[in-house]
């Protein structure tokens, strides 16, 4: 799609709500430019004034989201936490639109479908359109076989330990006790197999960014793992969560991860 660059950087047209410092909903991010609307884009991103001027729909593009093809990750909910059918159909439609738009623009679309701490399917960048959409046609809530249940990543544990030490926890107080607990249970562990599998898929995708779709229902520990691994590999992450409550939940959970942008679908 044709991009319309800005003469200078400015804020988007939304309210600019912020959570956790650098983590912002797209409405409040700096706008890099504009591009033609692609099926699956959120209508919240449409610049209606510009669209009326040119007679075509244009959406605002946030700083850092332009560039090469994204690595699209789709999180399937546990069937016990599944949304209503209409809500899931809207979610699936948004996913299909994003994949179609990426394939149309770049000629390929690396895709990973997961549920909890389990990778259901990985489609490499060289796959054809038929394989992609045959896979997407089968997405539905699943019976999750792997759960991470608030898994404490070793890197996060070490960061929290350092923060407690900087704060000068009182000897024998809660801070010192928490620091000892984190050191014993989270400070020196090895990454879970799921994280290692995600790392390999990201490297082989050849993408510079990650576009992650989630219904944001049930335990979301695996979402943190995906975001952390993307950050480790220098990839910007955009998370598109279902509904305002889903976007809010993901935003709060990822508030400490500055390389993540949260949008509502």
TrEMBL record:
InterPro entries assigned to the protein according to its UniProt record, in alphabetical order: DUF58
The DUF58 domain, residue ranges: 34-140
Pfam families: DUF58
Region entry Disordered, spans: 1-25
Protein name: DUF58 domain-containing protein
Native source organism of the sequence: Methanofollis liminatans
Upper taxonomic lineage: Archaea, Methanobacteriati, Methanobacteriota, Stenosarchaea group, Methanomicrobia
């Amino acid at each position: 799609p044709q991009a319309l660059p800005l003469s200078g950087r400015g804020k988007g047209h939304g309210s600019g709500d912020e959570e956790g410092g650098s983590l912002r909903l797209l409405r409040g991010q700096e706008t890099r430019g504009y591009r033609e609307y692609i099926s699956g884009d959120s209508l919240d991103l449409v610049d209606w004034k510009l669209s009326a001027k040119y007679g075509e729909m244009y959406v605002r593009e946030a700083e850092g989201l332009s560039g090469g093809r994204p690595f699209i990750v789709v999180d399937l909910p546990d069937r016990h936490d599944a949304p209503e059918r209409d809500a899931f159909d809207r979610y699936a439609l948004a996913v299909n639109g994003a994949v179609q738009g990426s394939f149309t623009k770049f000629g390929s679309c690396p895709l990973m479908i997961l549920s909890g701490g389990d990778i259901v399917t990985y489609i490499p960048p060289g796959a054809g359109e038929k394989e992609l959409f045959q896979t997407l046609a089968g997405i539905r809530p699943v019976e999750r076989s792997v759960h991470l249940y608030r898994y404490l990543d070793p890197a996060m544990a070490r960061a929290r330990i350092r923060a407690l030490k900087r704060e000068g926890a009182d000897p024998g107080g809660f801070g010192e006790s928490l620091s000892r607990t984190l050191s014993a249970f989270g400070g020196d562990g090895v990454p879970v197999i799921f994280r290692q599998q995600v790392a390999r898929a990201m490297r082989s995708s050849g993408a510079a960014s990650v576009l992650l779709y989630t219904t944001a229902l049930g335990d979301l520990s695996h979402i943190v793992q995906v975001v952390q691994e993307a950050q480790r590999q220098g990839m910007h992450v955009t998370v598109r969560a279902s509904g305002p409550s889903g976007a809010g939940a993901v935003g709060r959970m990822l508030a400490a991860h500055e390389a993540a942008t949260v949008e509502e679908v």
